[in-house]
């Protein structure tokens, strides 16, 4: 599954009149770049879909590689020259989206928009992405949920809240998450939809494709951790 989202880079810059110019004719400026995700209506949202963002600045900077772990991932610096940077947005420790950005001083405030793709996002990342729009498999997901609900009171969908399971999985610590992945793999059956990319550190499962026995195991595990409310 590939999910696309638009992100907005917001750039602000201003001349620093009290700071002497390092190069004649080029006043010193303070500038900043922040990152947001857009929904279907074009409204800005916190870019929680990224774990961290790395700005690769001009090599003349004392610290040309700058990392920010929290939204809006604002990179703020001082300088006199325009340049093009590369911004690496990480969805996991190894998986990233690289975006070119032109830092210029034509306007004090300007924005640029880019489309980024999320390949086989984890269950937790899917929940975050739904805050800014539907996912490609949401229609099929809703059909399966409706069909399971109409099949009778003995179905797993009647006993367990999949939205709560997804939320609980998204709040697990790394060690617990690895344990859950092991539980899923140990109880995997034909017909389950699972995507696993070890190199990228990504694991995704369609919860509605799980058998009732596995659903109960996950529900009980999350309940013991206090993650089912």
From TrEMBL:
The record's GO CC annotations read: Ino80 complex; SWI/SNF complex; transcription factor TFIID complex; transcription factor TFIIF complex
- Gene3D superfamilies linked to this entry: YEATS domain
Where does the record place it? Nucleus
Q: What is this protein called?
A: YEATS domain-containing protein
Q: Which CDD domains match?
A: YEATS_Taf14_like
InterPro entries in the record? Sas5/TAF14, YEAST_sf, YEATS, YEATS_dom
Q: What is its main location?
A: nucleus
- Where does the YEATS domain start and stop, copy by copy? 1-132
Q: Does the keyword Nucleus apply?
A: yes
The alphabetized list of GO BP terms reads: chromatin remodeling; regulation of DNA-templated transcription
Region Disordered, annotated ranges: 132-155
List keywords of the entry alphabetically.
Answer: Nucleus
């Amino acid at each position: 599954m590939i999910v696309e989202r638009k992100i907005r880079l917001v750039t602000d810059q201003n001349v620093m009149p009290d700071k002497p110019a390092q190069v004649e004719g080029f006043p010193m400026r303070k500038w900043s770049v922040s990152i947001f995700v857009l929904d279907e209506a074009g409204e800005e949202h916190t870019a929680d879909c990224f774990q961290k963002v790395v700005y690769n600045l001009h090599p003349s900077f004392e610290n040309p590689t700058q990392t920010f772990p929290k939204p809006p991932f604002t990179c703020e610096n001082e300088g006199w020259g325009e340049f093009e940077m590369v911004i690496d947005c990480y969805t996991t420790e190894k998986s990233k989206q690289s975006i070119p950005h032109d830092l210029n001083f034509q306007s004090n405030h300007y924005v640029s928009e880019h489309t980024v793709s999320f390949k086989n996002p984890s269950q937790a990342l899917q929940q975050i992405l739904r805050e800014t729009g539907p996912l490609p498999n949401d229609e099929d997901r809703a059909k399966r949920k409706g069909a399971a609900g109409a099949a009778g009171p003995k179905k797993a969908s009647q006993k367990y809240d999949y939205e709560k399971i997804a939320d609980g999985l998204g709040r697990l610590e790394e060690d617990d998450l690895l344990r859950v992945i092991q539980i899923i793999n140990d109880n995997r059956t034909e017909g389950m939809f699972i995507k696993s990319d070890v190199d990228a550190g990504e694991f995704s499962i369609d919860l509605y494709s799980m058998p009732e026995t596995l659903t109960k195991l996950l529900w009980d595990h999350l309940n013991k951790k206090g993650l089912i409310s």
